[in-house]
Amino acid sequence: MLLSSPFLGALLAVLTWPFPNLTPTYGLDPSWVAGLYMAGERGLDAGTQIVFSYGPLGFLGLPNLFEIGMGRLAFAWSALVQILFCTALLWGSRRAFGLLVGLAVTAFAAATPIGDPILIAAAVIGAAALLGEWSARARLTLAAGAGALAGMQLLGSLRAGPTLVAMAVAVLLGLPDRRRTFPVFFAALVVTFMAFWFITGQALANIDDYAVNTANVVGDYSAAMVAVYPSRWWQTPATAVGLATVAALCIAAVWRRDNMRRLGLVLMVAAVSFLMFKHAVVRYSPGNSGVFMAALLGIGLALVPYVRRPLAIAAVIVLAGITYVGNEEAIGTRLDFRQRAETFQAELETVALPGHAEDAQQRGREEMIATYGLSPAEVALLRSGTVHVAPWEAGAAWAYDLNWDPLPVFQQYSAFTPRLDQLNAAKLESSSAPELILWQNTTTFDPNAINVPGAIDARWPAFESPAQMVQMFCRYRVVRWDEEWAILRHSPNRCSRERPLATVTTGNSEGVHLPPTRPNEALIVRVDGLAVSGLERLRTLLFRASGRIAVIEGNPWNMVGETAADGLLVRVPRWADYPGLYRLGRDISEIGFGRAPGFLTGVDGSTKLTLHFSALPLDRSAVLPRAAAQKRRVQRSIR
To answer: φ, ψ for residue 512 (rounded to 5)?
Structure first.
């Protein structure tokens, strides 16, 4: 009992506990976690009222106390997944190397960040099914369990869910009795999906919107969220060596197997490896590469029981070595097993003992309120109506207990397809538009920071979800503002029908002189030719899209090419624009757009873009008269 894999796996789960804190906090990533919890607690419809890369069960893998009941469920689920993950790794590694070495290898692998441990556990089970001799009953149990887990995960992480489906299909394809196991798998998937769909308060009518809109988020991630950070010397060679090592293990494991088992294992390993690879290369950074190396180690441990010991030893040394190099800067804290066990104990007491969760939640709320720094008058104003928080800090709505009524793609940077952009714009045009928008000035004054001048990945803020931005600009006016926050109130539309101006065809990244507009008009441009098309679709699927830029005042800024044809707000008369650092227009005479060249991009000297300019007539200022005194006061403080 004490030396069994489940018992030791549970012990390792405690010693490698990956969640450092349950207390609510502020920031870019915590804000979308807060949004998922608020959406679940308030029963927002997935796919229509809330759209993100997580479904209505997404909170389960993100334990937090934004909502105490949901946080307890998430803690319990995360503990179960960590136990399964550690048990699966230990089961495989001890079969290959014995108990002591297996414990050491598993502890190291489980302590390093992997991102989707449930997929690694699934890879261990899948390999065992394909490379062992399971009974017909065991195969049916596997099919039912895999279907139930996949159905649940399709409502959770929308990168893990589809990957689990692909892995399960690959495994069942390689096993006998496919005519029995496939129906059981798909029946379990559908039943579980529908059961949790209704349990989470979703309506049957919005399943199609959930499927289509979340597919837009997940499917276009590789085109819109490209970010290449300064790389380290080891990233490219470690990626190549790691993939080659896993491939060698896979080939060795199936060398003497029948063709269908070979196919099943190769497809399963390819599915999970490809997901981890994409996670590493779309947002290419040392941190993401380190996570990829750790995932390859986990996949390798799923395969080592089925190859000769010398190869298993060599492979694990290589994979552990690149994992260490990829996570070297944080390896000390990662391997602090005592601290991790103490963290688990503290969090278990927090969720289990009466009053502790409430105290932790209140501490988080107070810290967030102190950080946000809204005045009592501002809070009172925000509590007078429904509120959307722009561009992403949804945690403010939770901290101040506001009547949160978000745009569907509540994290604005994620509205990176025309469909998603128009979904947000339609909400602002509708009778159900939020009465107020709390708009955070995310501009940083550090010229080396990535979110200059106020959007992620050095994007230009006015071009983020551009159709939404135009609707906000036309229908919301500032009632209060300072350097950190602006409060916008829904008002009658101050924009008239657009007036076409000019269409210009230009070369890639070439500057174009802006056409003149009248004193009461803003300038909008729609750009054709920046969306991913042709062979670049293949490149984007297998790797990532090339970067898209806007050249403003001679400086390049990243942008999302897919929504460039929705209408970019380029120039606005000062009297009609938002105040201070919230300005959306600039006094510029020239602008350019471009696609970065590269393999399968189709970009060369003949590449052309088409710019359609139009004027947007305005009849009122963006600042309500009662906000003027505050405007003058803040401008003096900025000077």
So the answer is: -130, 130
